[in-house]
Specification:
187 residues; alpha+beta; Jelly Rolls; 4-stranded antiparallel β-sheet; 7 helices; 44% helix; Cyclic nucleotide-binding domain-containing protein; cNMP-bd_dom; cNMP-bd_dom_sf
Length: 187
């Protein structure tokens, strides 16, 4: 199955996965437990062995918005905040019981500066995250809710087993009723 976050499919990232599996700390995270919390210092990145994480941004009014997901076989973390030693811009919460291998930002910095190949990998990671963000921005402006929903289905067909209708609506920036109408059209 394709990864939800396409960058994780790239062959170059096998070295990053190996880094976490070899040097990272094994941790089981229960559903609803936080890996990072918005507004607090965050210092870890991780490889997801099993499970699913949601990225949640709380606005100034206290409303939560689902802004992303990371699934098994992918990486989780607030990359900019972690590597720049800043407070997390999002909360990252386990949506299911999950198993991760995590490493502190300082260890990731050492990994990325260890050799030219790893420096190249860090550049590719930054580029991929930029492209992913840019594409999401364009999709929000240029695609219909139905097209966005179909993109989600094609990228992760069994997401409905793990993500509630309300979360899907938040992620796609529509109402839960809109998602219900889209699903009815499909059936």
């Amino acid at each position: 199955m394709k990864n939800f976050n396409h960058y994780a499919e790239r062959e170059e990232f096998s070295a990053f996965k190996e880094f976490f599996l070899k040097y990272g700390q094994y941790k089981e995270i229960k559903k609803k437990e936080y890996f990072a919390q918005q507004g607090f210092q965050t210092g870890n990145g991780a490889y997801i062995q099993e499970g699913l994480f949601r990225y949640v941004c709380t606005d100034d009014r206290g409303c939560e918005h689902i802004v992303g997901y990371s699934f098994a076989g992918e990486y989780v973390g607030d990359y900019p905040a972690c590597l720049r030693r800043e407070k997390a811009m999002v909360s990252i919460q386990a949506a299911t019981n999950s198993i991760i291998y995590y490493a502190p930002a300082e260890e990731m910095r050492k990994f990325f500066t260890a050799n030219e190949a790893n420096q190249q990998l860090e550049r590719i990671l930054a580029e991929e995250l930029f492209v992913q963000t840019y594409k999401r921005l364009l999709d929000v402006y240029c695609k219909t809710p139905t097209e966005l929903y179909w993109d989600l289905v094609s990228r992760y067909p069994d997401f409905q087993n793990y993500i509630t209708l309300r979360e899907v609506a938040s992620f796609l920036r529509v109402t839960p009723e809109t998602i219900s109408h889209i699903r009815k059209k499909i059936e």
